[in-house]
Specification:
alpha/beta, 8-stranded parallel beta sheet, globular, TIM Barrel, 269 residues
Length: 269
């Protein structure tokens, strides 16, 4: 199968290690997920690869994403690091390779690492390429370097408490789809009374409402979960149709609550 767009939901694997990561990936694939997201920094690519190969799902039917860490952004190092990732994942290519974070303080010029990423794509190491945690200005810069059609996604933090509206809207204007990580705000959505109330109206959980809201905005959510019942619930959230009023209410929860904000992050929009 050749993927020309992101599957509607993905299984995130941040903080999952070893057998837990392997079993979570295997379980997600058995339930119907076809999009698995990992990264070099997660230190679980080998376990994710084990989950994929032991699942019995043909590799061609799974959209596999990994991300290159910022210590491997120099041109020769980037391609070697992606080869190592592909090897750990027990495959011959990934469907999507992302720059995990823009180079801190532009230590490595963007033109160097994005051109290297494009070269890795030409070598067949990745079907698609993209970016993660890029600001509006950085997306503009990336598109100038790579051209209009090359950036498959910008993966950024998106959940009801951080709508990230400026970045999502700017990406849409550039024709860049957005992938939303931490759509459940590391579990905090479960405690929100507005999401709980809307959930009751749909016979759904607050987590499912958060995922349905992310999806309603045209953003691809990649929730992380190890429990099959939670994985299935996240998948089922795609069937929830929120009303305009419900979406408006959830929009009102935005309080710019950023969870992933390391000291090397860019200056956020």
């Amino acid at each position: 199968m050749s993927f020309d767009q992101l599957p509607a939901i993905g299984m995130g694997t941040f903080r999952l290690k070893g057998d837990i990561a392997r079993d979570a990936v295997k379980s997600a694939l058995s339930l119907g997920y076809r999009h698995i997201d990992t990264a070099q920094m997660y230190e679980n690519e080998a376990a994710v690869g084990d989950g994929l190969t032991s699942s019995g799902i043909p590799r061609r039917d799974v959209f596999l994403t990994t991300k290159i860490w910022f210590d491997r952004l120099h041109a020769s190092d980037l391609i070697n690091s992606l080869k190592e990732s592909v090897e750990r994942l027990k495959t011959d290519h990934v469907d999507l390779a992302l720059i995990h974070w823009p180079s801190p303080n532009d230590e490595v010029p963007m033109s160097e690492y994005l051109t290297a990423l494009q070269n890795a794509q030409r070598e067949g190491l990745a079907d698609h390429i993209g970016v993660s945690n890029f600001t509006c200005r950085q997306m503009d810069q990336a598109q100038n370097i790579l051209g209009d059609a090359s950036i498959f996604t910008n993966q950024v933090e998106v959940h009801p408490f951080l709508a990230n509206r400026k970045v999502v809207n700017h990406a849409a204007g550039l024709g860049i789809p957005v992938t939303g990580y931490m759509p459940l705000a590391v579990g905090r959505v479960m405690e929100d009374e507005t999401l709980q109330r809307i959930g009751r109206a749909h016979n759904a959980t607050a987590a499912q409402i958060a995922i349905a809201w992310v999806r309603a905005r045209g953003v691809t959510p990649i929730p992380s979960s190890t429990r099959p019942d939670h994985q299935k619930a996240n998948l089922d959230a795609l069937n929830i149709q929120l009303s305009e009023n419900e979406i408006k209410e959830i929009n009102g929860l935005d309080r710019n609550e950023r969870i992933a904000d390391p000291d090397f992050a860019p200056e956020w929009d």
